[in-house]
Design goal:
There is one protein chain. The chain has 107 residues and is mainly α. It folds into 2 domains: 1-73; 75-107. Helix content is 93%, strand content 0%. The chain starts with a helix and ends with a helix.
């Protein structure tokens, strides 16, 4: 218990040496177990990443399908009108900007 208290308080040279010696003795025995555990964790991470990308792709495809269905239900005329309105607004803004620049150049 005194060794654990020394380590938690910052330790001293003897507790550091004791932990190092124990690690040298225990590591060869624990190495196969730790290696297989690490390998399993890496495999799990790879599988989780693959499933997450599949889920993301499925979600994006589903949203795209819903958007296509909504556009079909609205009708092409309404979407054309919306595009024309946005285009008209952008054209008017461009003309105003160009007109302001031309006035500035004339002065």
């Amino acid at each position: 218990m005194a060794l654990a208290d020394d380590v938690l308080e910052g330790g001293n040279i003897f507790s550091g040496l004791a932990i190092g010696a124990a690690a040298l003795i225990v590591w060869p025995l624990m190495r196969p177990f730790v290696r297989s555990l690490a390998k399993t964790a890496i495999k799990g991470g790879i599988l989780a990443y693959g499933e997450a990308t599949r889920l993301y792709d499925g979600t994006v495809r589903g949203i795209n399908d819903l958007a296509k269905e909504a556009i079909e239900e609205i009708g092409t005329n309404l979407t054309k009108e919306a595009i024309e309105e946005v285009g008209t607004d952008l054209a008017e803004e461009a003309v105003e900007d160009i007109g302001a620049d031309l006035v500035k150049e004339a002065l």
